[in-house]
Amino acid sequence: MAPRLPLLAAAAWLGTTPAMAQALSCQAVFGDRTVTVEFARRSGEVSQLLYGQVVGVSNDAVTLLEGCLQRELESRPDPEVCRQAFVRLQKAASSLADLEAALQRLLSVHRLDRTQALYDDALARILKDMPVPPARVRRDGHRFGPAAADPSAGPSAPRGLSEVLEFQKADVVLVQRSFDNAVEAFRSSLPAAEHGGLAVSVYSGRSPLLSRILEATEQLETYRRFHFDACRATVAAVEQVYPSGLQWLEEPTTERPGPP
Amino acid sequence: MPLPLEPSLAARRACLGLIGVLFCGTSLAQGVWDPRALTPSPDPAAVARDPRLLRGLIEDGRRIFLARFNALDGVGRPAATGEAKPTRRLDLGGNAFDRSTGPDATSCVSCHGQGGPGGGGDFSASVIVASTTGYVAATPDHGSRIAVRRPPSLFGAGLIEALAREMTDALRAQRDSGLAAARASGQSRRVALATKGVDFGSLEARPDGTYDASAVSGVGPDLVVRPFGWRGQAASIREFTITALNQHHGLEAVERFGWERTGRRDFDEDGTSTEVTPGQVTALVMFLASLPPLEPRRLASQGDPAIARGESAFASIGCTACHRPALPLEEPVFVEPGPYRPPGTLSQDDVAWRLRLPLALAPNTAARAHPSPLPVRAFTDLKWHRICDAEDAFLCDELSLRDGRPADAFLTAKLWALGIGPPYSHRGDCSTLSEVIRHHSGEAAPARRAFLALADEDKRAVVAFLLSLGFVDPAAATASPGAGAR
């Protein structure tokens, strides 16, 4: 069976399409043009990993898991769909490690040069004036508890680019831990799925699988939201200070660029 | 077809629920002059910051264990069953106490008192679990079946949980190593599972990270060794404690029955929203983990020939294949929270604090140099075994299939508290050890036959040896609860 086929089958059967949120990368302007360019490139890598390899694949996993459970509810279990769900969840979890590494590379670029003072001021003002600071994931995710930490509790809201990036890197570790727990719960539940017994196992509450999946996906959504809100602030800051730091950008011309 | 005048189930539930609320509300509003019993409010995070407070936390746990709970503490669960997981009662209302389904006790020590706080209980204290006398939610594994279970001795519980964690760690490491090898080679690998000399079968690790657990034996497919409960259903003292608080007292721990897990602030609708805090559960756990095992009355090495002969016969007829005399504990430290927790049981992911309690084989030995690894002489392999069959079904009272485990599979009983005395068996309905031994069947049938083939003198020696395990001086235990065990 082609790798994508079970997903499509499950998605078509469920009448749903895996949702894909819009990617957004953090932006910054540095004194050194090459650092600005490199930062944008590395930041793009982070977003691609987050949205493409983590959020997207995680959505695939959940869609397949629902398909797996639905088939059992209909008394026509399909362990292969369950296994494909697990493989995708495992992939999403391992991509979180890649994401952490990509964030580390981004932080390294950030340390190469100082950001423009105008940009720093603009970003600090935007972050400070946000009516609700971007919420961050919390350690103790629970079924009905919000995955996002109470923004009013503690100095968790970022105050500048440095904190935006450091918080993104620190929080991805918490999401990773949740995904590792979900992968372990899924791996341990799969033997039941091979005998068509996953639905009994999870709906009776004996298997922690659904709790772990819900916790992991909710934390990921909170993380994605934090990444989005914080990066949106950085984009707004760049817009506010333009052309400062980006003077080298050329205005568009009426002539179509020719071949190099 | 209901009669026209018969109220619908929904209406009946609403009425009973209303009666329950009015009853509780009225009685509380009219005034209750009794004091609360569940008064300690320990803060584990503070204890983690200052380990000198650990002794106080354990003392808080002891006070809770001995406390006589009442309605002000949250006793009763008119809207909830005694299930381990939050489950709504089909029939709301009912009495605060119900001997068949619980709540059935006002204190932990009511049933765990033989030989001192933490000990086992008599047959009169045996509990009825998974019953459906009108209100336990109908789940596939309940039906209308019941099972009677004797309160076991909890002495040495910390050592047992620490052992189980190490065994789970080892089994999972073997699995993960096999999975890594399968991934690297692109081919499935057969992985033998064994830890501390106990064989748990094997699994087939596949390159895609999944595994086939059909050849795993004595433990669930998740490879978590669950050393508590007669059928080995709980991985930790904490998991079991929370279940018991609900089952026997209707006291619902916030971490399992609170809003974050159930979406309800007063899940059991008894008028109390916060019943047992994570700090109070932690205190109970640390108290239980701190209980040392009972020491043998006389050691074979101390020259009692009958006990020595019994010990030797016990091994030679094959009993020690499952009742392992000792399992080695590499790190005799109990860490709370632990790593293997189901949802609704505080885990290491939930909190930043950790409590570390050094464990000892006997009281006042913590400071002494321990052998390394520490031999935990519980006479168990912490594994499930089939102990009954068509030949002798006496021990087969479990009719339900839980967690995919065969109904005739039980955890190898720990024997290190047998010296406390009868009753015996998981139901507590045998007054002599001989009866229990005679009813061993299934995997234990060869050992039973070998026992029955022994000369009477040797049979008596085996029983004498078993009764020498876990001695409690009855006079001391009666004079001061806990003194005999300590």
The share of residues in helices of chain A is: 55-70%
Number of E-state strands of chain B = 11
Helix content of chain B: 25-40%
The main sheet of chain A comes to: none
Helix tally of chain A? 7
Unreliably modeled segments of chain A: 1-20
Strand arrangement across the biggest beta sheet of chain B: 3-4-5
What proportion of the residues of chain B form beta strands (DSSP E)? 5-15%
Quaternary class: heterodimer
- SSE string of chain A, helix = H, strand = E? HHHHHHH
Instruction: Give the uncertain stretches of chain B in residue-range form.
Output: 1-27, 131-144, 476-486
Q: What average pLDDT do the residues of chain A reach? A: 86
Summarize the main sheet of chain B.
Answer: 3 strands, antiparallel
User: What is the largest interface, and how many residues per chain?
Assistant: A-B, 29 and 31 residues
Number of strands of chain A: 0
Which strand-content bin applies to the residues of chain A? Answer: under 5%
Distance from first to last alpha carbon of chain A:
44 Å
Task: Describe the protein.
The complex is a heterodimer of chains A (260) and B (486). Chain A has 260 residues and is mainly alpha-helical. Helices cover 65% and strands 0% of the residues of chain A. Chain A contains 7 helices and no strands. The longest helix of chain A has 41 residues, at 33-73. Residues 1-20 of chain A have low confidence and may be disordered. Chain B is α+β, with helices and mostly antiparallel strands. In chain B, 30% of the residues lie in helices and 9% in strands. Chain B has helices at residues 9-30, 44-49, 54-66, 157-185, 237-249, 254-257, 259-262, 278-290, 305-316, 433-438, 445-452, 456-467, 474-479; strands at residues 127-129, 147-149, 189-195, 198-205, 211-212, 327-329, 333-336, 355-358, 374-376, 384-386, 409-411. In chain B, the strands form 5 sheets. In chain B, strands 3-4-5 form a 3-stranded antiparallel sheet, covered by helices on one side. In chain B, a hairpin with a 5-residue loop joins strand 4 (198-205) and strand 5 (211-212). In chain B, helix 3 packs across helix 8, helix 5 (237-249) crosses helix 8 and helix 9 (305-316) crosses helix 12. Mean pLDDT of chain B is 84; it is low at 1-27, 131-144 and 476-486. The interface between A and B is medium-sized, with 29 and 31 residues.
